Amino acid sequence: MWQDYIITVVQVVFLVALLPTLFDTQKPATLTSLMNGGGMVIIAAAYFSLGLWWSGTVAALVAAQWLILAKQRSYLEDRKA
Fold first, then answer.
1. How far apart are CA 56 and CA 75, in angstroms?
2. In the predicted model, what is the mean pLDDT of residues 58-76?
3. In the chain, what are the domain boundaries?
4. How many CB atoms lie within 10 A of CB 42?
5. Is pLDDT at 1 greater than 90 in this prediction?
6. How many Å is the Cα radius of gyration of the chain?
């Protein structure tokens, strides 16, 4: 399906755009990261259920990035306490 390719390309842009945040010292709020990560997990599941394998895979990677950000923020908050 052509939609799989379009969604994949857009999500790859999001994947790359989020990389600097993973390596920066400032992180988004934990709740923000958890909500985005959880939402992307649901979106990935929906893509997989539609047979959009590339879109589902990239959505799962974006979800992983958001969940890593949540963990990083949580770690930073624990270190300050």
1. 28
2. 97
3. 28-81
4. 11
5. no
6. 14
